[in-house]
Amino acid sequence: MGYALDPEIAPWVALLADVPITDVARARTLVRRLAAAVPRPDAGAAVSITDQPVPGPAGAPDVRVRVYRPVTAPADCPAVLFLHGGGFILGDLDMAHGEALRFAELGCVVVSVDYRLAPEHPYPAAVDDCYAALLWLAREARPNLGVDPARIAVAGGSAGACLAAALTLLSRDRGGPALCFQFLTAPKLDDRLDTVSMRTFTDTPMWNSGKVALTWRYYLAHRVGGADRAGGPAADVPPYAAPARAADLSGLPPAFVSVCEFDPLRDEGLAYAQRLVQAGVPTELHLYPGTFHGSRLIQSAQVTRQMIADEDRAIVRRLGLEPRPAPSRDSQVPWQY
């Protein structure tokens, strides 16, 4: 590895835990332990938080969601459906808590989704769960959640961004809820693994092309005939599984896309943002030099603070929120894989 990492980030690389994902059960245990060691942000009296089940997809269990509502939020405030990262195999509501709370403190209702994980539940389980949660949010928006149904956004990082992008396609194609914004950080979008960054970044910290390939295999196993590979023929993998495969990106909601310089996912994020622009979708794109997938865990770095400030500004602007000071809190960002 000889990457020109940001000088505030580089010294921390040796201290970051590597999560081996060949053993999924062990990886989940390790990530839960790491997350438990980080102080949990406290909403105090500013945000009410409730867990509840919502109706799942046909023939599937209910989907557990966690609803965050600022106590001072006006009626008809905007909402964000938040989908955690984790390479389709890791993550839960507790690990997503810091990010979901951060969005709520900007002034919107947040619905964080505990979707089913691969490899036990491969595609389409996760995206079906997330779409069921979106339908519930849209249905309950005004009568029970105090949400403006015209201001519902979807947001996620990494695999969560894949699910968020997939929901915009599903909702457009099925005539579902009209989404006002898609927020995609370090998005994982293309199972074909054929970009310069994917071929180059085989040994980047925390997340590399080998791990990306393995998590796609976990997620898409039954879509490619059970073969131990991703990147099957186009007919095998629909765009709702890998949004980069979508032939038409027109009619999608405005987008925020951010990528890290030394991330195997970098180029698919850049390409997707470019295609959104070409399809007439208003798109804001950021590339952060010297960063890698997961480097935002290093909260003290100026580039991490810049990332978070850019994200907050985009959420506030696109959802029509009143600008407010960001809470001075560390460890707001969840693990993203």
TrEMBL record:
Keywords linked to the UniProt accession: Hydrolase
Pfam families in the cross-refs: Abhydrolase_3
GO MF assignments: hydrolase activity
SUPFAM superfamilies membership: alpha/beta-Hydrolases (SSF53474)
Every Alpha/beta hydrolase fold-3 domain range: 80-294
InterPro entries per record: AB_hydrolase_3, AB_hydrolase_fold, GDXG_lipolytic_enzyme
EC number: 3.1.1.-
Domain of life: Bacteria
Enzyme superclass (EC): hydrolase
Keyword check for Hydrolase: yes
Coiled-coil stretches: none
Record-given protein name: Lipase/esterase
